[in-house]
Amino acid sequence: NLYQEKRRPQFHFTSRRGWVNDTNGMVYHNGKYHLFYQHNPYGWNWGNMTWGHAVSTDLVHWEEWGDAIHPDQMGTIFSGSAVVEHDKSSSAGSEDESKCFVGINSLANEKNSSGFRTGSEEPIVAFYTSAGNNSPWSRGVPFTQSIAYSNDGGRTFTKYEGNPIIGEIAGGTRDPKVFWHDSTGRWVMVLWIENDKFSIFTSDNLINWRIQSDIKGFFECPEMFELPVDGDPSNTKWVVYGAAGDYKLGDFNGTEFTPETGKIKFQHGKNFYASQTFNNIPDSDGRRIQMGWGRGIDMPDMPFNQMILFPVSLTLHTTEQGVRMFKNPVKEISKLHNRHWDWQSQEVSTGENPLSDVSGELFRIKAVLEPRGADKVEFVIRGTPVTYDVSSEQLTCLGSSAPVSLKNGKLTLEILADRMSIEIFAQNGRYYMPIGADLTENPKSLELCSEGGNAFVESMDVYTLKSIWT
Ligand code: FRU
Hints:
By secondary structure, this protein is mainly beta.
């Protein structure tokens, strides 16, 4: 039975078989979330890089489609992004101006500026790195940037005949992230050039790109987007990050990013890498949704390897240290809720386990705790401790730690436990720690314990979760 193997994650995306790494080409198109990913269709380890493809209507249940983009004589297919070539060109300007632009707008549509559109549907246009030299049939060929497009909702892709669209810059230049910049009415690409350098390019037609400026401080897999601060659309900041996910905040005028912060650490633990966010999410939704690679979560004895982390929504909030990014599991997770237990205003005495009645395989836990007299508060999730140490202000799981300060004496935790992972969101998503953990041989129990004194549960919800594969 598909997706029923012992170590198959039950609410995270994995490929039916073969290796998976970076998320690629994340785009929303006609009611479907498209997730592409670095994929080796022919082996359990990295190699033969191909874009795998999965599709969802709710961010939670995924259907694996056939592989989308295959290696060719220009190279194997490394990471990149995708956009929907929409009708918004020239939306900038004042009301009066935009009236004048109406004509230009419709012209632009009819003009089909990339020339890729063949039917009534807006095409999906994917940008990837042709990793020359990375396969026997592309030996001696440099790394370049290429396009493939789809006029059938991502069912099939055609490689652009004019590839590459950006020739060799440095030895391993890669990972084009393209997005629409509304106020300049242009497409923007951020590309990893070499060492710690990204470059920003702009284009009117997705094909011809002009280099504009550089961003320093990041390695591989660029990502860049705008977010409101504290939900206020009139006060926004731009976020830039690379594969490690640590970010800078700043301003972007369509050609140049001006950082306002140094690099801010965001991901804790060893298992987060190479994430990106969806392009083309409808304004009515307005979320910035990210998915990343759960790097290093090996799947021994399985026909597949590595997993994709649970989708999260990114927001900016003012904190005592300034504006910070927060991440929380997408709300659609509630579709998976199965059994539910809840607690309110309850003392946790040492040696007692308020969760002794709970049993299950897959869990979502949401808790607001006050350590009060305790030195340590600990969840034991299917035998695996997630420990908060009050004096060192450290949250620890399986050797990974995050520095987490209490807020008004409170620790807010959300924990997702699947067969092969534990994802921890602390203080309403300000700290994030995804951890690879093989729970498959472990007890199906949960514990909450305090050490050194009594702790207090302000509120706690525990859900068992349903599999997305049944
Ligand atoms: C990041 C990365 C990317 C590259 C891809 C190759 O994990 O090294 O820079 O495009 O993986 O699979």
